[in-house]
């Protein structure tokens, strides 16, 4: 079967598409024919730096990707036989960028409602946004500032903050303003240089990971809390923490339910054939965020 492998740390262009053995169905397994695979910044970061995230991925070769959607084609005797032919979202830390994925953990596979497309489920990136929302909910800060608010995680977080009463200040680039306004017409986006004077305490949710931007915000705001998902360390900042989402199966089930109910909208940009995986990653990395 066709598989996308990382065999070195030379970045995106070091990826290879290789024929590998199809997984053998086990008694506790479900075999999934993959259909849609998302691209996230974690992908290209891990392809050049094993220490890019808290999860150490230094054993090569490895199949890239962590989640995707497909259709169940075989079911082991110890699994629910009604899963056959169902569309599912599957999580697999061992990689998903292959024609077939074997799932042996029921908590890592989620049947999809009829009104949730493969593309929407694959693009689901709500776990990190949910983690940031927990930081906001726990904070007593009077204002909420979000860097990279036009990103997939930023826009997903803002969907989760629909009922938030505190002022929200989305920070985006000038080039991303029109896109942000299209996605979030109820909010006013600002560039780093033009946001209004913010009085009172603030919490900064950092999705960009630029120390210079956070240093500027720290000077502009009054002793802000700074919570980053993109910068693991920032010793020059006074009130800084790094957070990352912990996997939770029930939350994934909730997010899929919210997609089905229209409470969450997946953000999708372009779809590429698997043969163009390098082109797709370069596109995602080198253009402004407009969805997965």
What topology emerges from the helices and strands here?
Blueprint: E1 2-6, E2 15-19, E3 30-36, H1 41-46, E4 62-63, E5 67-75, E6 87-91, E7 100-103, E8 109-111, H2 118-122, H3 126-138, E9 143-147, H4 152-160, E10 168-171, H5 177-183, E11 202-206, H6 211-220, E12 225-228, E13 240-242, H7 249-261, H8 277-286
Parallel strand pairs: 9-10, 9-11, 11-12, 12-13
Antiparallel strand pairs: 1-2, 1-4, 3-5, 3-7, 5-6, 6-8
Helix pairs in contact: 3-4
Descriptive account of the structure:
- The protein is an alpha/beta fold.
- The protein folds into two domains: 2-124 and 266-286, Alpha-Beta Complex (Quinone Oxidoreductase, Chain A, domain 1), CATH 3.90.180.10; 126-242, Rossmann fold (3-Layer(aba) Sandwich).
- The chain has helices at residues 41-46, 118-122, 126-138, 152-160, 177-183, 211-220, 249-261, 277-286; strands at 2-6, 15-19, 30-36, 62-63, 67-75, 87-91, 100-103, 109-111, 143-147, 168-171, 202-206, 225-228, 240-242.
- The strands form three sheets. A five-stranded antiparallel beta sheet has the order 7-3-5-6-8. A five-stranded parallel beta sheet has the order 10-9-11-12-13, with helices on both faces. A three-stranded antiparallel beta sheet has the order 2-1-4, with no helix packed on it.
- A hairpin with an 8-residue loop joins strand 1 (2-6) and strand 2 (15-19).
- The radius of gyration is 20 Å and the shape is globular.
- Pfam families: ADH_N.
Keywords:
292 residues, Quinone Oxidoreductase, Chain A, domain 1, Rossmann fold, 5-stranded antiparallel beta sheet, 5-stranded parallel beta sheet, 25% helix, globular, NADP, oxidoreductase, Alcohol dehydrogenase-like N-terminal domain-containing protein
């Amino acid at each position: 079967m066709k598989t996308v492998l990382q065999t070195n740390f030379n970045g995106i262009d070091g990826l290879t598409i290789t024929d590998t053995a199809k997984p053998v169905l086990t008694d506790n397994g479900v075999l999934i024919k993959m259909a849609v695979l998302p691209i996230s910044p974690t992908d290209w970061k891990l392809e050049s730096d094993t220490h890019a995230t808290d999860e150490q991925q230094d054993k090569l070769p490895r199949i890239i990707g962590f989640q995707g959607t497909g259709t169940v084609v075989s079911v082991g005797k110890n699994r629910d036989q009604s899963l056959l032919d169902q569309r599912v979202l599957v999580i697999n830390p061992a990689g998903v960028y292959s024609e077939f994925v074997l799932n042996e953990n029921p908590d890592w596979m989620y049947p999809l409602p009829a009104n949730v497309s493969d593309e929407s489920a694959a693009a689901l990136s709500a776990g990190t946004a949910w983690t940031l929302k927990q930081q906001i909910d726990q904070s007593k800060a009077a204002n909420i500032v979000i860097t990279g608010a036009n990103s997939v995680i930023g826009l997903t977080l803002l969907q989760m903050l629909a009922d938030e009463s505190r002022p929200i200040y989305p920070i985006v680039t000038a080039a991303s303003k029109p896109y942000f306004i299209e996605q979030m017409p109820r909010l006013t986006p600002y560039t780093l240089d033009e946001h209004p004077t913010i009085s009172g305490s603030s919490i900064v949710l950092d999705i960009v990971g630029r120390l210079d931007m956070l240093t500027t915000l720290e000077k502009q705001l009054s002793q802000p809390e700074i919570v980053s998902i993109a910068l693991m360390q920032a010793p020059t900042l006074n009130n800084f923490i790094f957070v990352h989402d912990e996997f939770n199966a029930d939350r994934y089930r909730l997010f899929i339910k919210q997609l089905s109910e229209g409470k969450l909208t997946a953000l999708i940009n372009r779809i590429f054939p698997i043969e163009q995986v390098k082109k797709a990653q370069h596109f995602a990395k080198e253009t402004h965020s407009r969805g997965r």
